[in-house]
Structures are given as structure tokens and as C-alpha cells.
TrEMBL record:
Name assigned to this protein: TetR family transcriptional regulator
PROSITE patterns: HTH_TETR_2
GO-annotated molecular function: DNA binding
SUPFAM superfamilies: Homeodomain-like
Coiled coil: none
Amino acid sequence: MWRYFVDATVDVIEKEGIENVTIRKVADLAGYTSSTVYNYFQELSHLVFFAAMRFTKNYIDDLPRYIDKGSNTIEKWLYTWECFCKHSFDKPEIYAVIFVNNLGSVPEDLLEHYYKTYRSDLIGLPEPIQSIILEHAFSRRSALYVQQAVDEGLIEGKDVAFISETTMLIWQGMLTTVLNQRRNVTTKEAARQTLDYVYESVMKVIPTDKRKEINVQFK
């Protein structure tokens, strides 16, 4: 039943857009009453969150290919940003629901529930990548991965939190700007600008003598 309502919500999003999802529409499409939907979901935002996650599969499938382009942790991490920007700015409303909007609940709990149900989404992904995806808080996802760069001597431990938080705020700010139409930029331009700002933020904390080890070619 839980999956049935999530799939119905996905249908509404595909036909009418995520901003037009209502409990009544989902219930009608599934052939049940609104009260039945509330037996499985505390509020609409939870249902929309779970449905939005169904639209991230292309990103998850793409991620290993981007990571493989890097030869060290910083390069790999920057390429994960390229992948994330590509997909998140292509579907900004979807990614805002997952990473920005107020869910009225603990996001980690919702994510754990989601992947218990849709565990197949993770099949074939290397274990380190699974751990990143299963960590919902964006800055913690970054810190979890970037920490390995400390062992490689590319950054200092004190800089992990800084670049994790800073790059997350850059992305959130640009995504919000796009959604609110506060700048006259295309989603492709916004994705590239975000990626450029992320790159510059990271390079600032890398010791000068180590910067030559970072060679990324964004498309």
C-alpha cells in the first residue's frame, strides 16, 4: 500500500508537476480515500519526498561513472559535484524537496525508510558510494567523502567542515535563486556557475604545492 501511494504520487508529478500534488489527487488516483493515505503518511511533504526520490535514480546511476573520472579524492569529489549539479538543476523542484524544503520530520528517518523499500536502487553501487547516498544531510555527505583527502595529504582536517558547509550553501543558494527566478540564467548556466564556485572554494584550501595534483575537466 505504501508503495502504491508513492507510485500514484509519481504519476501526479509527471502529469501535473510536483507543486500540484495533493492528498486528494493521490487518493483518487489510487482509488482510496484521503484518510487512508494519512494512515501511511503523516503529512503531504513526506509523500512528496518519497515520490521525489524516485526521480533521482538517473543521478544515482550516473554517479559511479563520474567518480571514476578522478584519480584522487578531491578530483573524484569535484566530479560528484558535476554529476549532482547536472541532475539537480535539470529538476530543481525535485531536488529542493529532498535537500532544501522543510519536511516536518527528520530527513534521515525518511531516507532510511525509502531505501528499505527501494533497496534495488542501490544494487551495483560500490559500498563507499552507498554510504554517501544514504547520508541525507548534504554537508555530512560531503565531509564523509572528503575526509579521505586528509589521508592523501591534499587538505588539512580543519578544512573538511569548511568546504563541506560552504559548497552546500553555494548549491542551496543557487538552486533557490533559480526556483525563485531571481536571476536571468538558464538552469544549465546555473549548474555551471555553481560548479565553478564549488571548484574555487575547494582550491582555496588546498596547499599551493598540492594544487598541481588536481586536474579536473568539467564538460
